Amino acid sequence: MKELAAGLVAAAVVAFAQPAFAAEAHELPGAAMSLWWALPFAGLLLSIATGPLLFHHVWEHHYGKIAAAWAALVVVPLAVAFGIPAAGEAVLHTLLTEYMSFIILLFALYTISGGILLAGNIHGTPLVNAGLLLVGAILASVIGTTGASMILIRPMLRANDNRPFNAHVVIFFIFLVSNIGGSLTPLGDPPLFVGFLRGVDFFWTTVHILPDTLFVGSLVLLIFLALDTILHRREAGMPKIKDPTPDTKVRIRGLANLPLLAGVIGAILLSASWKPGVSIPVLGVSLELQNLARDAIILALAFLSLKVSYKSHREANGFTWGPIAEVAKLFAGIFICIVPVIAILRAGLDGALAPLVSLVTSADGQPNDLAYFWLTGALSSFLDNAPTYLVFFELAGGDATHLMTEAASTLAAISAGAVFMGANTYIGNAPNFIVFAIARHRGFKMPGFFGYMAWSGLVLIPTFLIAGFLFFG
């Protein structure tokens, strides 16, 4: 719990270590900033991508220090180049208005879903597996990809642990539950909540990404059903494997957490509809009352879950604070490192990222939605999809009202690319690696990094090619 607390307050410690600033905004001069300012952001994302693979033990024990070092390479030069007021206001605004709300929501969904246990076991036939994947994909937009993955991965593993061919079940679980299913609400996947914090309406994605999600999700699910049916028939002629977890009645435990999840949704809807017009200045940053109330309610619900949940249910789920503490620390670094990148993007064609702006802009000056879809998706496959979404959100203008109306197809392309293509690699979305680690620990022979990419290349890339031309071409 100490590790978690350290992660949650990391940004607050950075913030309160700074002197109080005047209320006026100090804009960073993005047009005058070179691409050198983007190096810490690129370095941190590269560390996140390669650290667990190339220097696992060092990364495991020192990822927080590595993230802090990259963040320091942003904060200190900004203060030297543009002064403490401008640098401090830019960093604090990001931490207090976006990061804290972002990590509080993730913490709450992770904590509350960890108290819900799906006990018992059923036999993993193709139809049963497809049903579990469908339920998980639907849940992902309600309790988040992390929450849905945490609740359903162990029942899925138990259902298939006596099958000779079972790694593909986990791979498609990552495709559908840990990624594609989370595309319909800000609760589903971190990039969409970042968009919500930037002003995108709560149900905007539910309406505008629904056709894309139904098409992509249905096609991937049908491919799974066909493949699993073929493999299941092949297994019929093979020696039987003793089931280490015999079939028993399935029960849902920890039902007291369900109204708490509903409370989280209610708190977010409240902040979207209740606009009292009251702001509270904190260290020179104006925090709107409805957002403070939302975060306080969500945090209270998370701690209430710890009180009402049985410890045995969390233990059966393999619940630990490590994953959310890691996310809290790494995202504190990411949100700081992205500050100068956002400033450059806001400069548009006058900034150092003008070539990127041109790449996603047609000859007539209109946004190229297909380019937005693939570029957002390609980067989300290897980098974290939340900051990737934010980069392209800003690249498209950063005005939520405009993006939800005149540029709705562009925002849909960015949203779909960030969420869908996080499934292309193990590192594209936080739940991917968690599910992979749990499956390997349970004895499933999972493919390595490039082996997994062979699966995604065969299944997902053709699906995304069709979806891209259907919806954004």
Topology:
Blueprint: H1 2-8, H2 10-16, H3 39-54, H4 56-82, H5 84-114, E1 117-121, H6 126-160, H7 167-176, H8 190-197, H9 204-208, H10 210-235, E2 248-253, H11 257-273, E3 279-282, E4 285-288, H12 289-308, H13 311-316, H14 322-337, H15 339-346, H16 354-359, H17 369-382, H18 385-395, H19 400-404, H20 408-420, H21 430-441, H22 449-471
Antiparallel strand pairs: 1-2, 3-4
Structure description:
This protein has 473 residues and is mainly α. It is 68% helix and 4% strand. The chain contains 22 helices and 4 strands. It has helices spanning 2-8, 10-16, 39-54, 56-82, 84-114, 126-160, 167-176, 190-197, 204-208, 210-235, 257-273, 289-308, 311-316, 322-337, 339-346, 354-359, 369-382, 385-395, 400-404, 408-420, 430-441, 449-471; strands at 117-121, 248-253, 279-282, 285-288. The strands form 2 sheets. A two-stranded antiparallel ribbon has the order 1-2. α6 (126-160) packs across α21 (430-441). The chain is globular. Mean pLDDT is 85; it is low at 1-25.
Summary, kept brief:
With 473 residues, the chain is mostly helical. The protein has helices at residues 2-8, 10-16, 39-54, 56-82, 84-114, 126-160, 167-176, 190-197, 204-208, 210-235, 257-273, 289-308, 311-316, 322-337, 339-346, 354-359, 369-382, 385-395, 400-404, 408-420, 430-441, 449-471, and strands at residues 117-121, 248-253, 279-282, 285-288. Helices cover 68% and strands 4% of the residues.
